[in-house]
Write a structure and sequence with these properties.
Layout: H1 11-18, H2 23-31, H3 33-44, H4 47-50, H5 64-71
Amino acid sequence: MSATDKTTLPFTEQHYFSSYDHFGIHEEMLKDTSRTLSYRSAMYKNKHLFKDKIVLDVGCGTGILSMFAVKAGAKH
């Protein structure tokens, strides 16, 4: 199965993964300030875990976690 072939997945999984195809879900998550600020706070309070590290944001929807990681001290 290719990364883009969702047709072999059960319907519920197709729906879940397809929901990320649209920008609206990313906007909704960014506007969830409690969620977004919780991620940021956790990363900023643990800068020692990010200092000079290389970080890979696997989801890569908006890249917000990558930006927080760099602000927390990640090298790349």
